[in-house]
Every structure is written in C-alpha cells, then in structure tokens.
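Many introductory courses stop at the sequence. We go one step further.
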Amino acid sequence: MLNPIIKNRNYIFAYGSIWFTIFLIQTFIVNFFYGVDSVISLVDSGVFNLLFALIGLNLWYVIRFNLKETPNIFDLLFNHLIVAVLAIAGWITISYFTLIYIFPDADSYRIFLNESLPWRVITGIFYYLLFVMYYYVMLYYEDLQEKLKVEAELKNLVNEAELTALRSQINPHFLFNSLNSISSLTITNPDKAQDMVIKLSDFLRYTLSHDKNEEASLEEEFSNLHRYLDIEKIRFGHRLNFSTNIPADCKDFMIPNMILQPLIENAIKHGVYNSTEEVLVELVCKQEDQNIIIEISNEYDPDSVKKKGNGIGLKNIRKRLQIIYKRRDLLEISAEKLVFRATLKIPIS
C-alpha cells in the first residue's frame, strides 16, 4: 500500500513545501543566531531535513505493516520507542558524518555540530511524533473509509437481493391459470393453444432476461404488457377490454423493469375477475415536470364480492420504488365512484 503522502500530487507538493519552509527556517537560525557560514548553514539544513523527510516517508510502512496490529498498548509503546531510537540515531549519525565529510576543515562548524546534537535529537523526537500522529490519523481514516465501503457494498447487495426477490414474485396463479387454459385449448382450439404458449414463453423470457437489469424502456414494458394481456384475454374473453393512451415521446423513458405488470394484474383481479360484463382497463402515460406519470385505471363494482388477496403486488412495487428512488410517494392508489386508479410517478432523472 502506497504512502498516503505520495498518492496525491497535492499532498506531495504540500509535503515538499513544509520541508522547504523548515529548511529555510533552520538555515536562518543556524546562520543568524549561531553565526555559521551561510553556505554551511544551507548544506547543514539541507542534509538534516532531507534525510528526515525520507525517513518520515518510510515510517509509514513500519507503522502500517508492523505496528498497526500490535494488540498490547505497552508493546506498542515499547516498539515505537525502539523504532524512534533507531530512526533518530540513524538520522543523526548519517547526517553528522555526511557533513563532516563535506566540511572536513571547518573546525568551528564541527564544534557547533557537536554542541547542537542535543537539540537535534529533541527535534528528531518532535518530527517522529508528528509523523506517528499523522500516520495513525490516516490509518484510522483508511479503516473508516474501508468500513463505509464494505457497508455500502453490503447494503447494495441487500438491496439487489431484495429487488431480485421482489421482481421474481410473479403470481403463481397466473402461471397455473395460463397452463390450465392452454390445456383446455389444446382440445378445443389447438392453433390458439399454440399461440398462447408462444406468448407465455415470450412473457417469461422477457421476465427472466431482465431479472438483472434495473431498468427497461417504457416501450419494452408496454410490449411485455401486451403479451401478458393477450394471455389474460384468452382467460376472460370479452370481459377484458384494454385501452392505452401513450404519446410517442413517452416510450423512450426508462423505468424499473416489470413494474407495470403487477398493476395491470391488480386491475384485472379487482375489476374483471368478479364481473360478468365488459370491464375497461386503461393505461395513460404523460410527462409532468421531471416525472413520468403512468395511470392505470379499471372499472369495478364496489358492491361485488372482492377477490381475496394479500396485496403483495402493490407492496412489492412500493418497496422497489423506495429502494431505487429513496422515496415513498411514487405510487398512489385511489377509488373514485366506479373507477379504481393506480398512479405511478417515475422521476425522469
């Protein structure tokens, strides 16, 4: 894992700028307050600070891979003490002999160098503590980001699993009734039975092929609805009359796949199933502001015996919309006089 400082150009620039500032300050102090030659002051400050800047970068790997998982606080402090002693001793030793090698005849500077070792050690301890604090903050931040990432991935997996489960809950009664109708038609009307098998196959193929896709165009959804309705018309005959009012500019909009079929199924269950007369099921699509409004209405007899059901279809739709759009107000159900209406609102974005 890369040092967090060298991951980003801005961090590298900031790191270099900080050390350059320290270099200038130390050069000024050594030259102005201790009377060391300006060239020697520059080299002195450059060697000491450049070397600790390199040591500081490598401290990340020591802390990240050796000290991060130390379970005991006393072991951790002891290990840091050992690392600090080795790092500062190495820093002082290498810098000291490098400068002695560069300025072998500068006796007054050698005296200054020997006398300055105590405050250089204190400076090294200060630098070490700063690096340790910074790196532990970065480790905490990385761990936090990793936990948030894992939580987000788990949440996405849960949401995806929920959506998959919700999409897969096709009413088994529809399949049973369709197969029974096909069975009857094989005797009375084989050609119609063959046509119904093809439509049922296309409907199921569409359902399965879109199982992993989050969205489908309205045109695709409408085509699948017609397959579903063609199958249901064979069951209900003249009692089911379906009408649509879909402007051409609506068809390209994307909506959650298989979101309309349960609404049509609900309209048939509560409108057509208990009726002996023709019942109109109507689908209207329009755009309002930044939403696509889809209204599915059906005529119904409020005095007729309702077909029992647990409302899984409508609950699934509400749950899917809530998961996808993070909103609870996208499906409205109303009953006005003799018309039952479901209004679906899909944000265009």
